[in-house]
Fold these 2 entries.
Entry 1:
Amino acid sequence: MTEAAIVPLLSVRKLTKLFGTFAANNGIDLEIMPGEIHALLGENGAGKSTLVKMLFGVLSPTSGEIVWNGTPVSISSPGEARKLGIGMVFQHFSLFEALTVAENIALSLDDNVPLSKVAEEAAALSRQYGLPLDPSAHVADLSVGERQRIEIVRALLQNPRLIILDEPTSVLTPQEADKLFETLDKLRAEGRSVLYISHRLEEVQRICDRATVLRHGKVTGACDPKSETPSSLARMMVGADVASVERDQSVAIGAVKLETRNLTVAARTPFAVSLKGISLSVRAGEVLAIAGVAGNGQGELFDALSGEFPQADANAVLLNGVPAGTLGINRRRLLGASFVPEERHGHAAVPALSLSENLLLARSQSDRAAFLSGGPLGLIRQGTLSDATKRISAEMDVRKASIDPPAGSLSGGNLQKFIVGRELDRQPSVLIVNQPTWGVDAGAASRIRQALVDLARSGSAVIVISQDLDEIFEVASQIAVISEGRLSAPYPAGEMTMEKIGLLMGGMHDGSNHPEAAHAH
Amino acid sequence: MIFEAILLTIITASTPLVIASLGELVTERAGVLNLGVEGMMIMGAVGAFAVAQMTGSPYIGVIAGIVSGAVFSLLFGFLTLTLVANQVATGLALTILGLGASGMLGESFVGIPGIKLPAIAIPLLSDIPFIGPILFKQDIAFYLSIALVLGINWFLFRTRAGLKLRAIGDSHGSAHALGINVIRTRYLAVMFGGACAGLAGAQLSLIYTPQWVENMSAGRGWIALALVVFASWRPWRVLIGGYLFGAVGIAQLHAQIIGQEFGIAIPAQFLSMLPYVATVVVLVLISQNRRTTLINTPASLGKPFVPDR
């Protein structure tokens, strides 16, 4: 068969979607061949979701053409997309937690499939693709990986010819991701096509046959990812070379700034993770990165370190040598520590309040003298406050529509830059950050990471809790892994490998001492 | 037989609780919290009584009661589902409005002797000694209450429409994304709840005490609401809980006699408190861990749904 004889399964021509005057997609061309895994690469806001929503019938295109198997089609609902043979696995699962696996699957099938048959079919299919599932289990009891399997099985039950996966590995361990890739290989071997949306370059290079890169709603490249380098792919995604974080290897390592001694915290709620004897120490000039899969105690560790939930033992946490275990957040801040929690809205910032008000809220206790005048009322020094807001915005390149907008009106990346900047502005001697660049675009992420590294270079101790392994390798001088509330020993960043992190994430804390363990899976 | 008489009173007292509660259960399973049960019930009671008087047929009265409750609940549906008003506030307003409006509508019926719905003896079964007269020589409302338990249980857990309704109650956003019509289903669920409350009200004014008295629902709507939680949104448990709550209500009427019989004085107020205490205990038990909460309570209960967001 010659190249020309193969009809693309899906081709998209000059597809455009306008929201008002803003072109979320601008003349997109895309071709997906039968039996290929096609990557759709792009940063947050590049237009990937818009494109996919149009392919799945959630949004209707402003102009342009979608050709399915050689025939122009208009897809006006997810139901029609499914009828054509397009299945979709969403990034944020649309599952019903109170219902069983079988019931969840039944809901997305045609009304004429009897409920009693769904469980059997789902079980058979999940075995066939190596996605073990118990149809009678309640979704509430399942892990994120298992939930994703439901979504995949749900899509497969429609017998689709094209499956769209939206950022599927963002919630998986490296091992779970490997399983997923095996499943994708099986799908490809059956002649099905996969549209794989991601911003993880290594993954795309590893499993995808071709890639289309989007930036600002336009196609900026179509290539074979295996013949590209990560940096050439990144260039297509970002438009310019992403500033890689500069690290000065000769940073002077100073005294211990933060130390925990056998920090043990019982689970506060039945669904929280207990912390089991965590001992760590961070010196001036160091960035300790704590890797781990979501829900292994990262939030609890952050709460314990920040003093949101103080400990009974004062010596469990030492800040600059001072026992701080029993102190609350503001007392710890007064000892020179700063904290950036994971949730931007409602934890790190009050969305309805302006940036300056958020700044004041965070620092009104720890930097009282700077922002409040004396006296019982504590009048706000408006001039100082607005100067500080301007200074932070300029320093961190916070892009906003007005001088002092509500925090909730900023994009995730810009708000995060402001929050990190707000803490850096204090020049803290210890900074603890949880998921610093979650949901943040690449430009802002690189700005934030650089700021963290710079802070350490200036003689502070920094702890970064993150699920993003690329980020961890970029900023860390030491790497430890948290798993089920236990923290591994720290390893110098140079000695850490992806595989070792993966094993530690699975709770194999002695991985380094037993080389054979690395081959166990 | 005194024991048989007591059982019969308990059944009559429990039936309206079970019926109203089953209706609210379906409404809440769809994710809508309608606190207006008391108001819908009393509207059903006055509607049923009035139409029975005018037509002379208590059965047409029962149908009128059901229709009154359903139509009245439509007001709630329109405010909370179409106009997206706060469900708690709207439900409370519905109760207050229902109590007031029914008093006004029923003014001319006060003191008029009502028409009692006759009991229907089921052939053969009603001849069984002891249980025959108790279970099979009952009025239509009792039979309907049992049929509702069976029917709702079957509907919710055995049919696709019931599955969709539960899915909406669990996560209306996801249900909408799957193409399920959230608003329409919720309208139907709200109206079903209203119809059941209306039927319960008809039972009050045509069977329990066949006359019209202002405020005759006497807080039963609130007990029915508590009962849904007590039953953790399961139809069979509504039946069991309804009879427990009904029995407590009867015991409360005879608190003094019971006190004399057993030599312990239980204040009537203590007994009237029991259903609510039991409900709080169940709520605490359900909230013990995330899993039982997730699996038992409709997660989107009381949350407003706006489709295009």
Entry 2:
Amino acid sequence: MKHANVFLKIFVHLFLIIMSLLCLLPFVMILSVSLTSETGIQANGYSLIPSEFSLEAYQYIFRNPTEVISAYGTTTFVTVVGTLVSVLIMAMLAYPMSRSDFKLKNGLSFFVYFTMLFSGGLVPMYILVTKYLGLKDNILALFLPILISGWNTMLLRMFMASVPVSLIEAANLEGASEFRIFFTIVIPLSKVGIVTIALFQVLTFWNDWYQAMLYIDHGDMTTLQYMLYRVLNKVNLAKEYGGMMATQEKLPNENLRMALCVVAAGPMLVIFPFFQKYFSKGITVGGVKG
Amino acid sequence: MAKTNLTVQNKPAKKKGLSLNARKSLQLGVLTIPGVIWFLVFSYIPMAGAVIAFKDYKPKRGIWGSEWVGFDNFEFLFSSNDAGRLVFNTVFHNFISIFLVAFVAVAIAVFMDLVDKRIYVKTYQTMLFLPRFISWVVVGFIGTILFHYEHGILNQVVAFFGGEAVSWYLTPKYWWFIIPAFGVWKTMGYTSLVYYGTIMGIDTQIFESAEIDGANTWGKIRHITLPLLRPTIIIMSLMSVGSIMRADFGLFYYVPNNSGSLYSVTDVLDTYIFRALRGAGDMTSSAAAGLFQSVVGLIMVVTCNTIVKKFESESALF
């Protein structure tokens, strides 16, 4: 609907600009604080533009890169392996569910759907992973417990249901196995859906801190988000037990904290906007009916 | 050549018909195996493990070996002062954010529809989407930029107007507003996309004929866009009501920086369960709280689905 009058147009743009800035400015702030010298922060507080420009925080990271590099390694591994494996498994599960002639279709859908309605809760999951599977401090614990998403499986099923049945029937008549049909017809034709789900998964694995918080006690398996969590937590501890203690304990400098944030979250913020059309697609397809 | 091939192939295909189907079903079944195993192990086994809520769990004896204690764990949980506050905080914050998110997201979508240049729409959407791409931990850092006592933006603003600096992380009352604000901030961009998609799907002829009848922009919004958005708004909201007992852990843990002084406002079932599990609390009342959450959640989802069915049966979940 267009053709609004001028005043309304100004109002609409003003509203949207304010909302957009509310979303954008916090990131500018993080970047700005990370580029301000520590003395500048102490003197002038945080600001939208660095009050005293300095690269000291980033220089520090590059001089002591071990932890950041190791966290990058763990996060990248978890994200890449987790995404590839999970998308493959979910696609393999979604395809039979999308076939109306598959007898177990409804049973299978309910089997997946029920996990979205009811869960055993955190405690049994924790006991299962740590005690029965013995995955404490194991890199598998960082993605195995959250590998599959019922929601994303259902979304994939919807994408796959739009593959023309006639193509599958034709392949059937030519004697192709279901495996061949799946890999050579269904996957290529649901490329948009698969890319969409893969992006959701990348985001899930890259941004996950919960698994590390639950299952990792020793530092050598730190992910980026967990590294950030520990930095935040240290600051928090100092604050909890009296502001006086903050000066005694060695806290990471404020610009360094924000620089770590930029290093950890930056890539997603730069890369993902380019894939936005896929996100929009996934949301509008799955938003109302899951 | 082609013709003979066809006739030759047709016959065995017909004969094989049934056995082919069984084989095909088997092949389809094989494809589902890894996924089914994952759901069995990581969803269904923990569901069975939820019986721990009725046991006096001793790690040495395992879940099955531990003694049954009936509803003792629930009694313990609900007789403590925590339970009421936890449930209230969880439900209250969720309710507020359901309304706020719906309101703000619809406003954004409706306004976005009034923007006539595609490039502006894209730009706004890109910016509104940014919060979706970061983790709650990073949002926690954004929180410290705003609420830091000495250097924070909010206290700079307060000082500018001559006020006295506020200890944001130690003063619960502000968090009734801060929590929902961050919740809306993180979700409004992509929720508005759902509504925007619905508006895009409205037949333009409806608007055109309304214009011929002399409707102005506000009239069109009020009498066409909003009524047509209503089913989507109701369904989206009811779906959120289904998870009213589940709080977004990251929002309640990182944004208030897990500050103990704020628990009266920010402590919810999910943060309580986590602390009980990983901190000093006891595992069994944590398990009881978790099961309570799941059972109420299930009841809410089924109820809401029944209601959705009445509004618009096509949009019901099951």
